[in-house]
Amino acid sequence: MGLIPPTPATAAETLVEFSDNRLLIDLCGPFDSNLARIEQGLEVQILRRGNVLVVIGEPDARARAVETLQALYARLEGGRALETGDIDAEIRMGPAEAETGMRDGDQMELFQGGRVEIKTRKKLIEPRTEAQKAYVKALFSNELAFGIGPAGTGKTYLAVAVGVNMFIEGHVDKIILSRPAVEAGEKLGYLPGDMKDKVDPYMQPLYDALNDFLPGKQAAKLIEEKRIEIAPLAFMRGRTLSNAFVVLDEAQNATSMQMKMFLTRLGQNSRMVVTGDRTQVDLPRGVQSGLHDAERLLKGIDRIAFNYFTAKDVVRHPLVARIIEAYEADA
Fold it and tell me: DSSP for 114-137?
């Protein structure tokens, strides 16, 4: 791969040459869809001439586009897949200062300026916005971390990924995933089946995240052995959670008493992550959200990190970010 300096006659162009045509095809995407995404995100035009891409645009935008193309090509050279989210991440964050090598047991030392990657059994997970990157760093660096922001920003997904990583690397003995069994409209008692049948629909997002990082049979075996627990918040009462990675999801639906109960379960050699969205409280009118109280009372305490996300950090369908922005504007 080489960069050809622009000539005076093509001062608004930069030419980038790629040596492997097969990887260049993957870089461009079906019907050049990846190039179109970069064009739209960075406000440039990209033309393909054989194994050369011509980038046209303002100097700063052109330079960013070239860096993005080179970073994505390097990713393909490393044998890694290129997904739409990876392109969006490069556009948002810019190429990392240096590639970070992955070695077993190294995860805790990955934060020296390069990429942040979370190793799980099924795949490598990368933060796709600067806020996500800071959040992942906080999860590894603090015994208690909060992730607060709208839906689709990866708060729970990344927390579970870090938990799986710390588990497979031997830093914790178990993973505990919890959320309040509170939803709008229905009560647990009205649902058919035994307690597990009643509770599982509320826990399904946690199962979904877990199954993204562990093979199905392995996840089922670990759940059976109680090395991974997925349970409602009410089941945490009276326990001391030691040598565990603990995630409380949808924490805006925990009451103040429940939040205090949960936070005081923290035991030796454990990590806790609390995630929530202050705009989606389903508690009865007049009941204070425990997430609000925790945020007010615990800010400034050493080894407790608060990380915040906005609509700009949404990594679901682009329309989700626009929907969130529309609701925020109307608030």
Answer: S---EE-SS-EE---SHHHHHHHH
